[in-house]
Prior knowledge:
With 70 residues, the chain is α+β, with helices and mostly antiparallel strands. The protein contains five helices and two strands. The chain is 41% helix and 19% strand.
Amino acid sequence: RIMRDFDGTRIVTSQDLLRASEVCDRLLIVDQGRIVSDGDMQQLLGDESLLEKHGLEFLGHCPNCRQRLQ
């Protein structure tokens, strides 16, 4: 809740894409210590081949996340 209500810049590190999608608009994907993708959360989470290539999976099981991704 604190993260959602904070009006400043947030830097979040997480392997939990579902949680990150609830509080972030921008996503950086880091693989083997290198930034491999940087962009809009909705676009990157919608790119299944990108996620799969870097060993990630986004299931989007929360109602807020589904709305954000549509």
